[in-house]
């Protein structure tokens, strides 16, 4: 009886549904003080004067930090360079204002209300300069794009374009997106008498990486970073917006050290738009060249996104184009245009999200030019091997995703003529797109402990960002140990637990899972070794390596399952309260021997190791096919998504319930991206015009139709011993393009700028 | 900021007379958002939620008096039969949680041009009962909306109730939004047929500084409809009606939609709702004849 593959309900479901799960902001603290941010109201200029005297004199105020009195803070090492930060420029260090929303003062008081009131009493005068707004200025290449050079070339795409029988040249645009998790970011920092720092974080960014960030920011030597504890038990969504170190994480620790009291900072919804990154707007020029049969000879994908004085994060739009289709000549380029805004960051399906909108829309336009079925066009360009790295895939079930999806959706009923399908007054459109995502394996350690009562505790420093890690990892450990999942408790989100990389880039299952499995098998083997040496054990004399788990906490001889021992009995006879083992996965052998759960760990070397899990022999991607039906009101231009079918190859499905939850969520993000999500910036002031959930529209239940999710559920034989790839972000990819393609099919109108609005579909 | 909590309406009126700049708050679905966004900082809030009589409605001889504190959810549940237009508009307000708290009185008090119930109140000839320590006066909806977020209340007045006739004929309401729920109207439209008076009420929302009657459209349609021997409408009538409704609007471009789109959409909503309402009327006539 195995648990992996079964729809075990979330172990934290009841806690969350009943409001008893304790999120970071809910944690009670003695002697707690409360902080608020005061943010710049201009996008560019200098602080001519700042007067905090009235705030300092206000009731309950304990501390007001401005650039005039704040402790000196170092520039942070960028994540791309092995550090923990996207914004490398620290807050409150000079009088410059580089973007609207930059922190200009940090106020701490006895209550949040007092702090908020005091912040209003601070008078700031600015020397304002005209900000750079929009992607209009000079473009420049970033240093790196996801660790790769900004330009990618194979073959000679320009020449192949010139020779192509059919070409499509189009420009696509996507707007600024914000992560908008329901839970606002929260940091609670407290120092103990021995100089130890404890930070409770609503952190997607991985507690170990944040520890290094705190050490760096606070001038604590790396060898002493073990004195910093970061805890993050529950997360109310992150989507990239709670990754990495930002000034909002650092300032509470700075203030807490000055005050000798714990400091809590919880952002307002509006501050979330300027304090933790966002997805850059993009302009993407796509040029495709094909022969008359639709075989791609050339693709040029040129992407421009936002550059910032605060750090550098190019949206890696063209990277999906480099690997998705069998095309001999491909050029992908990334450029930045500097604006007076904060630094962008990873946002749900970074790169692949907006990149696939451009690529998969352009493919649909090419299919139209060729009078070819869009699905057939994709099949004709199916990449049997990774064309970017010229090596085999570890697994690729995309062809089956296409066929299964087409079958479930009823793609064959599609009349190719745009505007030809109707249901009453509604125009009906079918659209499809390919999904692919480069989920990662990050270095992860786990410790599994079997206790005297036969139950097990698994510890790993990862954070459950809402995906179901607590549940799924208990299942993985339960199967490896041969116990019920209910007998396993998974504990996470604490630097006291074995090292884990941040659960970003859909890496949770495929990084944590194998580590948990390895540790569970190791501890099981240790118990077996105890048993085979124990004369009282039915396993006495057997080869420990061949002892099998037969369920119910029993270990049996390989040759005779009737002769078994149990964890409980073995431990009792050995007089042991527990037995435990720690194992790592995704790490080089030398790290296994030295990395400990509490040692600080440099992120850079781990990153370099993790990006080469197969020593360059195989490429691993998550694949899928998205099929969408839309209904368009021809008089009002209103678009409704009426059906979605998503079929995905994510390797083995560890838990179909939590995996489906991820897929439905991802598709819903895709619907939002296609039809409503957008942050608008004032063209002259350079400020966001509606930093709230009334202006930033996300899909409601009424916008999300029945979604049919299907997983091939085929273990990847090479990626890891569990055969699991990634699921979190894949289902976002391609949905916006599939919707735009369906809208075109319904109306004959091609929208190349997201979100798709009704006005463009009229007339 | 003072938080005033009267237990009776009389107390509330006395407090409002004493402190005219106190902002009344019932469901808080508008006021709290404005406070949160720092759009305003009133010296006092006047909490009306303890006043039971504001949450009551009554019907006498087909005339309904709906207390200003009756939440949308109860209008939908309890008054859908008698005030179908108001119930339709109420269904489009916010989320279930918002509909449990938000009130028509609040919609009127805020007087946002995008308030969902305004076109229905205009089309249905609602009368607003305004009260103060000085007494009570009745303000027709058509005279209530003065400008963007400005209404005809005196500083010492509170909205006691809204008076409406139980729908004398078919009513319809339609709204275009940027998503399917929890959304501020891009534009909205309400129509009410008054067959006994051979009259039509029609009004637009979110398409001018105030919600307003589409007077020319109302007059045109009243003349075109054959009330005594109802028959299916000509497309040309629907089209002309739509044009006149669009002409009644003076919308702006904003993040939710352009002025041109709003005018276009209003014409579409007007044609459609007229079609539905007249169909409803035809159905009734047929049933009554049969």
| Count of helical stretches of chain A | 17
Estimate nothing, just give the exact number of structural domains of chain B. Answer: 2
Span of the ends, CA to CA of chain B = 64 Å
Protein chain pair with the most extensive contact, residues per chain: A-B, 24 and 19 residues
Q: Outline the biggest β-sheet of chain B.
A: 5 strands, antiparallel
The count of DSSP E runs of length 2 or more, i.e. the number of strands of chain B, is 14
Work out the radius of gyration of chain A.
Answer: 27 Å
% residues in beta strands of chain A: 15-25%
What is the share of helical residues of chain B? Answer: 25-40%
The chain-level mean pLDDT of chain A equals: 94
- By CATH, the architecture of the largest domain in chain B is named 2-Layer Sandwich
* Helix-strand category of chain A: alpha+beta
Shape of chain A: globular
Q: Regions of chain B with pLDDT < 50 over 5+ consecutive residues?
A: none
Helix percentage range of chain A: 10-25%
Low-confidence stretches of chain A: 589-605, 607-613
Give an account of the 3D structure.
The complex is a heterodimer of chains A (763) and B (290). Chain A is of the alpha+beta class and 763 residues long. In chain A, strands 3-5-1-13-10-11-12 form a seven-stranded mixed beta sheet, sandwiched between helices. The radius of gyration of chain A is 27 Å and the shape is globular. Chain B is of the alpha+beta class and 290 residues long. In chain B, helix 8 packs antiparallel against helix 9 (235-248). Chain B is globular, with a radius of gyration of 19 Å. Chain B starts with a strand and ends with a helix. Chain A binds chain B through residues 270, 635-638, 640, 675-676, 680, 689-690, 692, 694-695, 697, 699-703, 757-759, 762, and chain B through 33, 37, 95, 176, 178-184, 255, 257-258, 260-261, 264-265, 268.
């Amino acid at each position: 009886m195995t648990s992996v593959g079964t729809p075990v309900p979330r172990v934290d479901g009841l806690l969350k549904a009943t409001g008893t799960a304790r999120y970071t902001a809910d944690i009670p603290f003695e002697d707690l003080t409360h902080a608020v941010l005061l943010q710049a109201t201009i996008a560019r200029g200098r602080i001519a004067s700042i007067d905090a005297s009235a705030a300092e004199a206000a009731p309950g105020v304990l501390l007001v930090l401005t650039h005039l009195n704040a402790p000196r803070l170092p520039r942070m090492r960028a994540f791309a360079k092995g550090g923990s930060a996207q914004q490398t420029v620290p807050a409150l260090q000079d009088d410059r204002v580089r973007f609207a929303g930059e922190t200009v003062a940090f106020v701490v008081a006895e209550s949040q209300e007092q702090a908020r009131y005091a912040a209003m009493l601070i008078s700031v005068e600015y020397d304002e300069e005209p900000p750079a707004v929009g992607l209009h200025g000079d473009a420049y290449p970033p240093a790196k794009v996801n660790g790769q050079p900004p330009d990618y070339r194979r073959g000679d795409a320009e020449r192949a374009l010139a020779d192509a029988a059919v070409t499509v040249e189009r420009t696509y645009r996507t707007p600024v997106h914000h992560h908008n998790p329901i839970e606002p970011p929260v940091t609670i920092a407290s120092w103990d008498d021995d100089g130890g720092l404890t930070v409770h974080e609503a952190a997607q960014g991985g507690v170990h990486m944040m520890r290094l960030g705190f050490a760096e920011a606070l001038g604590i030597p790396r060898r002493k970073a073990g004195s910093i504890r970061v805890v993050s038990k529950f997360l109310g969504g992150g989507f990239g917006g709670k990754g990495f170190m930002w000034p909002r994480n650092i300032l509470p620790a700075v203030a807490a050290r000055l005050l000798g009291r714990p400091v809590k900072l919880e952002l307002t919804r509006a501050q979330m738009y300027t304090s933790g990154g966002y997805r850059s707007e993009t302009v993407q020029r796509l040029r495709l060249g094909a022969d008359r049969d639709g075989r791609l000879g050339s693709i040029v994908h040129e992407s421009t996104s936002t550059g910032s004085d605060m750090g550098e994060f190019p949206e890696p739009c063209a990277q999906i184009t480099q690997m998705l289709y069998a095309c001999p000549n491909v050029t992908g380029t990334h450029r930045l245009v500097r604006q007076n805004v904060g630094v962008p960051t990873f946002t749900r399906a970074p790169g692949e999200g907006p990149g696939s909108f451009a690529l998969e829309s352009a493919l649909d336009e090419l299919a139209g030019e060729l009078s070819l079925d869009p699905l057939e066009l994709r099949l004709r360009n199916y990449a049997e091997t990774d064309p970017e790295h010229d090596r085999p895939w570890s697994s690729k079930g995309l062809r089956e995703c296409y066929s299964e999806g087409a079958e479930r959706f009823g793609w064959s009923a599609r009349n190719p003529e745009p505007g030809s399908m109707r249901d009453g007054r509604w125009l009906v459109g079918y659209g499809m797109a390919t999904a692919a995502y480069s989920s990662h394996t990050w270095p992860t350690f786990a410790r599994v402990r079997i206790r005297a009562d036969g139950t097990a505790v698994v510890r790993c420093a990862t954070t459950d960002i809402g995906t179901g890690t607590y549940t799924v990892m208990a299942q993985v450990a339960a199967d490896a140990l041969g116990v019920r999942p209910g007998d396993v408790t998974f504990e996470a989100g604490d630097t006291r637990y074995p090292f884990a990389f941040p659960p970003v880039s859909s890496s949770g299952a495929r990084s944590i899972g194998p580590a948990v499995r390895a540790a569970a098998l190791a501890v099981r083997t240790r118990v077996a070794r105890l048993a085979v040496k124990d004369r009282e054990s039915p396993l006495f004399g057997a080869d420990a390596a061949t002892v099998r788990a037969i369920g119910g906490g029993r270990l049996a001889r390989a040759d005779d399952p009737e002769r078994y021992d149990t964890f409980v009995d073995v431990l009792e006879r050995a007089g042991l309260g527990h037995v435990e083992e720690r194992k790592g996965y995704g790490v080089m052998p030398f790290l296994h021997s030295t990395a400990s759960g509490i040692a600080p760990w440099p992120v850079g070397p781990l990153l370099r190791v993790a990006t080469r899990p197969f020593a360059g022999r195989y490429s691993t991607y998550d694949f899928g096919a998205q099929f969408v039906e839309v209904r368009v009101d021809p008089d009002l231009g209103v678009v409704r998504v009426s059906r979605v079918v998503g079929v995905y190859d994510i390797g083995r499905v560890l838990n179909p319930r939590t995996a489906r939850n991820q897929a439905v969520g991802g598709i819903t993000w895709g619907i939002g991206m296609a039809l409503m999500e957008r942050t608008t910036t004032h063209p002259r002031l350079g400020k966001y015009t509606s930093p709230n959930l009334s202006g930033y529209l996300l899909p409601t239940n009424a916008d999300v139709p029945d979604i049919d999710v299907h997983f091939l559920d085929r273990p990847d034989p090479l990626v890891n011993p569990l055969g699991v790839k990634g699921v979190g972000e894949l289902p976002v990819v391609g949905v916006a393009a599939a919707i735009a393609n369906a809208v075109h099919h319904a109306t004959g109108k091609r929208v190349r700028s997201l979100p798709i609005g009704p006005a463009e579909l009229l007339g | 900021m003072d938080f005033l909590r009267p237990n009776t309406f009389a107390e509330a009126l006395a407090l409002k007379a004493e402190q005219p700049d106190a902002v009344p708050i019932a469901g808080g679905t508008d006021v709290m958002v404005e406070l949160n966004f720092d759009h305003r900082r009133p010296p006092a809030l006047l909490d009306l939620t303890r006043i039971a009589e504001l949450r009551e409605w009554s019907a006498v001889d087909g005339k309904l008096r709906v207390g200003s504190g009756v939440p949308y959810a109860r209008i939908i549940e309890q008054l859908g039969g008698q005030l179908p237009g108001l119930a339709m508009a109420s269904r489009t307000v916010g989320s279930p949680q918002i509909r449990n708290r938000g009130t028509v009185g609040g919609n009127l008090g805020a007087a946002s041009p995008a308030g969902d119930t305004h076109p229905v109140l205009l089309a249905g000839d609602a009368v607003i009962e305004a009260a103060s320590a000085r007494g009570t006066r009745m303000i027709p909806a058509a005279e209530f909306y003065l400008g963007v977020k400005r209404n005809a209340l005196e500083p010492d007045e509170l909205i006691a109730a809204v008076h409406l006739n139980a729908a004398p004929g078919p009513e319809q309401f339609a709204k275009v939004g940027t998503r399917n729920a929890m959304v501020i109207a891009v534009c909205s439209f309400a129509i009410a047929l008054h067959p006994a008076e051979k009259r039509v009420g029609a009004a637009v929302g979110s398409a001018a500084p105030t919600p307003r009657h589409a007077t020319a459209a109302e007059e045109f349609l009243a003349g075109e409809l054959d009330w005594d021997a109802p028959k299916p409408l000509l497309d040309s009538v629907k089209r002309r009606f739509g044009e006149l409704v669009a002409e009644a609007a003076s919308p702006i471009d904003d993040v939710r939609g352009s002025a041109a789109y709003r005018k276009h959409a209003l014409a579409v909503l007007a044609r459609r709702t007229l079609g539905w309402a007249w169909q409803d009327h035809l159905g009734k006539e047929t049933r009554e004849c049969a």
